[in-house]
């Protein structure tokens, strides 16, 4: 599973005097290029296609709202109707009624104070495409995902730690893609270099 963190987009926190309150915002933004690591050295750019979440939402995938991706810190859930997810022109709109628990109340206080200001979502890419940009860096466009959770996070998962970056690169398959492109380029070079009628190395 991959995770992506970003500042809460246009977050709104509402409290009517009962319970811990509600919040709304965009957990993901479409067509906004994000740097995963250092794209010019060891990393890549990434964009979400506007239809990336359509299948997951149409299927009614059971998505949880968590704190720091911790299953023990559950705030809301689509299956119970306390978490609403939908897409609009901007991205993945998230609206939730925070659970009236110690975790929910504490989270409401921290959201209101602005101490919590970032959100992350956990997913598995079902379909993506890669493009090499003019500067040689790689762009990944995510077309279709399975969505597991949206989380309010204290610290973003990317790209601060080397382990997280390696995990992102491995999950995205960038290493394999570069290896395949290198092997394809080498094959083209060998084919162009062989005299007419000559066989490849290792061929009988």
Count the beta strands: 11
Query: What gap, in angstroms, lies between the N and C termini?
Result: 44 Å
Q: Biggest sheet: strands, sense, closure?
A: 7 strands, mixed
Helix fraction, binned, reads 10-25%
Low-confidence stretches: 158-165
What structural category do the secondary elements indicate? alpha+beta
Task: Explain what this protein looks like in three dimensions.
The protein has 204 residues and is an alpha+beta fold. Strands 1, 4, 5, 6, 7, 10 and 11 form a seven-stranded mixed beta sheet that branches. It has a four-stranded antiparallel beta sheet with strand order 2-3-9-8, covered by helices on one side. A hairpin with a 7-residue loop joins strand 2 and strand 3 (22-29). The termini are far apart. The protein has helices at 54-58, 102-113, 162-172, 174-193; strands at 2-7, 9-14, 22-29, 34-38, 42-48, 64-67, 70-77, 83-87, 91-97, 118-132, 138-153. Mean pLDDT is 80; it is low at 158-165.
Which tags fit this structure?
single chain, 204 residues, alpha+beta, seven-stranded mixed beta sheet, four-stranded antiparallel beta sheet
Helices and strands, with pairings:
Blueprint: E1 2-7, E2 9-14, E3 22-29, E4 34-38, E5 42-48, H1 54-58, E6 64-67, E7 70-77, E8 83-87, E9 91-97, H2 102-113, E10 118-132, E11 138-153, H3 162-172, H4 174-193
Parallel strand pairs: 5-11, 6-11
Antiparallel strand pairs: 1-10, 2-3, 3-9, 4-5, 6-7, 8-9, 10-11
């Amino acid at each position: 599973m991959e995770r992506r963190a970003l500042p809460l987009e246009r977050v709104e926190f509402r409290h009517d005097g009962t319970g811990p309150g509600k919040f709304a915002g965009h957990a993901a933004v479409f067509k906004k290029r994000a740097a995963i690591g250092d794209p010019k050295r060891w990393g890549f750019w990434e964009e979400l296609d506007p239809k990336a979440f359509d299948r997951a939402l149409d299927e009614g995938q059971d998505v949880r709202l968590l704190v720091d991706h911790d299953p023990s810190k559950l705030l809301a859930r689509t299956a119970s109707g306390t978490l609403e997810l939908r897409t609009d022109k901007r991205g993945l709109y998230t609206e939730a009624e925070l659970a009236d628990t110690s975790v929910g109340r504490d989270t409401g206080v921290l959201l209101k104070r602005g101490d919590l200001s970032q959100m992350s979502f956990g997913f598995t890419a079902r379909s993506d495409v890669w493009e090499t940009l003019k500067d040689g860096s790689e762009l990944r466009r995510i077309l279709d995902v399975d969505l597991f959770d949206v989380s309010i996070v204290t610290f973003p998962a990317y790209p601060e730690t080397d382990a997280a970056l390696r995990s992102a690169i491995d999950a995205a398959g960038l290493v394999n893609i570069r290896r395949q492109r290198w092997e394809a380029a080498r094959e083209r070079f060998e084919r162009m270099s062989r005299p007419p009628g000559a066989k490849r190395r290792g061929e009988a």
